Amino acid sequence: MKYKIMLIAVLAILLVVFALQNTEVVITKLWFWEIKTPRALLILLSMLGGLIIGMVTSVERIKRKHKRKEETKVKEQD
Fold this sequence. Notes:
By secondary structure, the protein is of the alpha+beta class. It has helices spanning 2-21, 39-77; strands at residues 25-30, 33-38. It has one domain (2-77). Strand 1 and strand 2 (33-38) form a beta hairpin.
């Protein structure tokens, strides 16, 4: 338990250092939108978006695998 707290503390410190070193404002353009954000925020939001997409696709894959497993069990019982 103590190791988890230490790991979380170290990761939090690294995140703060990362954010402080990447404060430069960057302009992101998408079609007719133009967004000005700090570089660290843009990177973190991109990582969060990738994490969410990865989680959604893996949940769908697990559901399909579970469904196939149940169908196989039903066929074996018949």
